[in-house]
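Shapes recur. Our protein:

. . .
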Amino acid sequence: MTEALRIVVVAPDLVVSDPGDEHAVQQAERSRSLRIGLLENGFNLIATLPADVFLAERIAQLQPDMIIVDAESAARDALEHVVMATRDERRPIVLFTNDEDTRHVRDAVAAGVSAYIVAGLASERIRPILHVAMARFQHEQALRRELADARSELAGRKTIERAKGLLMRRQGLSETEAYEKLRKTAMDKGLKLAEVAQRILDVADLLG
């Protein structure tokens, strides 16, 4: 199942213009090792992209299941691009870095990183890391949906209470009668109770 994951790697350009630039050579080797590790583990690597202003558009076109950020000292900049690119459609993000300054971990997790891996490019580590990252992302998404549902339900209850109060004041109904009137209207119209309540409040606002 996991082998079918479509993965995008966000990494610096692999082209090393100066063979004497040891940092660039090491970074290119890191990126190559990561991509080889993904392929060896059977993942579907669909693209390697730079962290630039076009990243959001490219990710929207590719629709990957997971994004891996391969970065060193520029991890924060690269991560900002990825977070912005996935702001409207969240995806699991795994950050591989050689930067051992883990003070940035909290910020990275808060920004949406599912796994922050230091020196974790060994091929045999990639599969379990991505498994855990995906499971964590799915768990967080479930919690987000539960929270959104709870907020929506609470807002709906408040709306119903306001509508009941309005009916009680303007039509001289008891609380039970006001509720039953809302409930019957909702059933007759095929609407949710909160929707009927909101419509009543909207009409009241319109008519003053």
Observations:
- The helical segments are 22-40, 55-62, 75-85, 105-111, 123-171, 175-189, 193-207.
